[in-house]
């Protein structure tokens, strides 16, 4: 590290004691670089074993990396916490302006401890930090409204980040998210509920610190190389259609989860495709800070005001592949306006859209199979494709008027244990499935990944290669999944967007890190990635994770994938190989980024 770099400064906020201080931790950043590496180590330090995820002992840890503020697409913040949704490792990434704001405020990490007795928000501007009263904001349903109010009150326009929760976080729905200023989120695993448990409504940060480099002339060369690459093919699809471009290809190959994965093709996929969104509803595109791509696509939804038929409001609603799958094909919604109306409600309340869609899909099938009735749903009849019933259900998930909706507010795994239907409850390690039924590697990736996500090890990409090549032996598949997960720890420690993984190759990463004073060889870099995977799994095992008890939803075995019907024994054997590799703390393989 460079001696006068502020990356090693960690801002601590104790909400119980109303105390704020800064520690210097160059040791952590020198060993783990930043981002995910520093985040998991701080979580191990600050979160006591067996801590209640909704108790004051559960910390919120936000981390950035050495490339943040220096290079394009190094625009993500990582959040670490104990998840109220799974009871284990919580990790979420968000773009927007959060990472550059934290870095330019003069910090590499923020640790929030304890819990306030009254509603508060945290305000940080350069070296000044405050715990402010948020009593007037508490109880406001919309995360958008919270953002507008704080914008009018706080300084730092144009360089600040505003992280806030909606009513879902206050109600501690276990999959509540944290919303950002640029239509981004800390989406998965319930960080919003942890905010709510601490009576923390928002965090606003800004700063004007400068970031040193080791060689300005060389820095400009590397910067230009990365910037020009970002304008070329690796990110072209993200700029033009965004990840919603994946709808039609996945549907054509038979990998698009539909109606709770009873099918893997949606007959109306063309009606909710990225192309259709762009043709009829695209309002504008925006970008995260320091990103030339602009992958954030906003749909313009025009709706008449109630009782005022000639007066309209236009809502700008962010969309990409995951919301379209979760609130579209997964619950049978085939019209874009219906999908957007539901998505807007989910956004306003501050819920994770993927978990919400998968939960609604399970509830619809549970009603069809008469595991639940209108008695439990309070008169709502769940029907595939009926946006109105789903909006009503989301409102009840927020209000939790009875035991059924209280169960839905804890996730599909919990609800299915209470009411039945575990075979078609699409959860992996307690986390609702992402939108990929491409073959065995995707689902094995969901099961084995540190946060049970498609972003952990990109198994869906291995599945697509299997369509051309022969299927892999379980041991070889486990090695490939682990190799990708190891490399992604480096990307999420520097911290760059995974959309840029084709740009930030190992050589580029090493060159960029040298500008921040990190002199590493490729072997040393790989060892850091391996070590982070091991540390994450150490935390998981410490908190009760048992791979032998991982549940494979039977539905994934019943619905044909592009690679054919999945073999349960093959999945179990691969999971065993993977977990054995992690436990053995293997020598790192040379990464082969997807």
SS summary, helix count? 25
The CATH architecture name of the largest domain reads 4-Layer Sandwich
DSSP summary, beta strand count: 17
Give the CA-CA distance, first to last residue.
29 Å
CATH class of the largest domain: Alpha Beta
CATH superfamily label of the largest domain: Aldehyde ferredoxin oxidoreductase, N-terminal domain
Poorly predicted regions are: 586-594
- Specify the helix fraction band: 40-55%
Task: Please indicate the count of domains.
Answer: 3
Helix/strand/pairing class, anyone? alpha+beta
Strand order of the largest sheet: 2-1-6-3-4-5
> How can the largest sheet be summarized?
6 strands, mixed
Average residue-wise pLDDT: 95
Strand residue content: 15-25%
User: In oligomeric terms, what are we looking at?
Assistant: single chain
And the CATH topology of the largest domain? Aldehyde Ferredoxin Oxidoreductase,  A, domain 1
The gross shape turns out to be globular
| Radius of gyration over all CA atoms, rounded | 23 Å
List the SSEs and their pairings:
Blueprint: E1 9-14, E2 19-24, H1 26-32, H2 35-46, E3 60-63, E4 77-82, E5 89-94, H3 98-104, E6 109-113, E7 120-125, E8 128-133, H4 143-153, E9 161-164, H5 167-170, E10 178-179, E11 185-186, H6 191-197, E12 200-206, H7 216-230, H8 236-240, H9 247-253, H10 274-280, E13 282-286, E14 296-305, E15 308-319, H11 321-326, H12 336-349, H13 353-368, H14 374-377, H15 387-399, H16 403-408, H17 412-419, E16 427-428, E17 431-432, H18 440-448, H19 454-457, H20 459-466, H21 474-494, H22 506-514, H23 522-542, H24 555-558, H25 568-583
Parallel strand pairs: 1-6, 7-12
Antiparallel strand pairs: 1-2, 3-4, 3-6, 4-5, 7-8, 9-12, 10-11, 13-14, 14-15, 16-17
Helix pairs in contact: 1-2, 2-21, 2-23, 12-15, 18-20, 18-25, 21-23, 21-25
């Amino acid at each position: 590290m460079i001696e006068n770099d502020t990356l090693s400064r960690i801002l601590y906020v104790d909400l119980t004691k109303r105390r704020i201080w800064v520690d210097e931790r160059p040791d952590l950043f020198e060993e783990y670089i930043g981002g995910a590496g520093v985040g998991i180590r701080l979580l191990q330090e600050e979160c006591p074993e067996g801590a209640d995820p909704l108790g004051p002992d559960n910390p919120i840890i936000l981390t950035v990396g050495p490339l943040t503020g220096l290079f394009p697409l190094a625009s993500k913040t990582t959040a670490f916490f104990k998840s109220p949704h799974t009871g284990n490792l919580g990790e979420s990434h968000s773009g927007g302006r959060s990472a550059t704001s934290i870095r330019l405020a003069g910090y590499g990490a923020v640790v929030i401890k304890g819990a306030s007795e009254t509603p508060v928000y945290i305000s940080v501007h350069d070296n000044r930090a405050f715990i402010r009263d948020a009593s007037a904001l508490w109880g406001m349903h919309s995360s958008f409204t919270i953002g507008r109010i704080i914008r009018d009150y706080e300084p730092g326009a144009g360089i600040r980040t505003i992280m806030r929760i909606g009513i879902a976080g206050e109600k501690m729905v276990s999959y509540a998210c944290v919303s950002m200023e640029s239509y981004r989120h800390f989406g998965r695993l319930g960080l919003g509920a942890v905010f709510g448990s601490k009576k923390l409504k928002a965090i606003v940060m800004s700063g004007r610190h400068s970031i040193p480099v080791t060689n300005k002339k060389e820095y400009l060369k590397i910067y230009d190389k990365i910037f020009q690459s970002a304008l070329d093919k690796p990110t072209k699809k993200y700029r033009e259609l965004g990840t919603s471009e994946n709808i039609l290809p996945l549907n054509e190959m038979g990998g698009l989860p539909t109606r709770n994965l009873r099918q893997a093709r949606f007959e109306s996929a063309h009606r909710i495709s990225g192309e259709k969104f762009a043709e009829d509803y695209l309002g504008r595109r925006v970008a995260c800070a320091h990103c030339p791509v602009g992958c954030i696509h906003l749909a313009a939804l025009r709706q008449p005001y109630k009782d005022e038929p000639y007066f309209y409001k236009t809502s700008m609603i962010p969309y990409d592949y995951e919301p379209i799958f979760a609130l579209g094909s997964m619950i049978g919604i085939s019209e874009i306006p219906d999908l957007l109306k539901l998505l807007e409600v989910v956004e306003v309340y501050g819920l994770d859209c993927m978990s919400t869609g998968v939960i609604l899909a399970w509830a619809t099938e549970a009603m069809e199979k008469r595991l639940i009735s209108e008695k439990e749903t309070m008169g709502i009849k769940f029907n595939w494709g009926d946006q109105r019933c789903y909006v009503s259900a989301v409102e009840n998930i927020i209000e939790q008027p009875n035991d059924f909706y209280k169960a839905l507010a804890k996730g599909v795994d919990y609800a299915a244990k209470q009411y039945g239907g575990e075979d078609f409850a699409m959860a992996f390690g307690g986390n609702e499935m992402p939108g990929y039924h491409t073959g065995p590697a995707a689902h094995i990736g969901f099961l084995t990944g540190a946060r049970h996500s498609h972003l952990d090890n990109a198994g869906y990409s291995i599945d697509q290669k299997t369509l051309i090549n022969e299927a892999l032996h379980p041991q070889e598949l486990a090695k490939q999944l682990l190799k990708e997960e190891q490399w992604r720890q480096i990307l999420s420690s520097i911290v760059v967007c995974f959309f840029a993984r084709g740009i930030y190759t190992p050589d580029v990463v090493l060159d960029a890190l040298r500008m921040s004073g990190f002199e590493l060889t490729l072997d040393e870099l790989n060892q850091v990635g391996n070590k982070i995977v091991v540390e994450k799994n150490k935390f998981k095992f410490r908190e009760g994770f048992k791979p032998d008890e991982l549940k494979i939803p039977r539905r994934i075995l019943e619905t044909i994938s592009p690679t054919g019907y999945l073999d349960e024994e093959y999945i179990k054997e691969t999971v065993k190989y993977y977990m054995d590799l992690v436990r053995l703390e293997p020598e790192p393989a040379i990464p082969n980024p997807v």
